[in-house]
Amino acid sequence: MQARWLGKGVDLALLGGRVEDFFKGKGFKTRKDESAEGYTISGIPPRAHGIYGKVVVKILGNSNDFVIEFWASDHTRSAIKAGLVTTMFGGGSLLLRGLKSQEALERLEKEFWRRIEEAIPYLINSAKHAS
What we know:
TATA-Binding Protein
């Protein structure tokens, strides 16, 4: 999923830090990369989360026109597909793990967007006070 913000004047480096903090607070190992287009934050979940594969957030654009993209690797979808194909041969547990991973990803993404919506106004105010 992705969302776009216009005319906010948000410091994207601070926003990237907030995204990284979100994942670290969930026990994820993170990596933050900066490019000319923006920031990419990758999170690798601990096994306890039941999420297979990494989660990636991209922040693209500039402080007054930026997009945030949230996506997960294809590991969960692959597990579901493999489980469906092999269910008759005992692949039901793979299907169940894939479905649980998908549910965990959906919960994580919902919380992520809620946190972003809460952080943006604070980051706007911080940018105005810093000027």
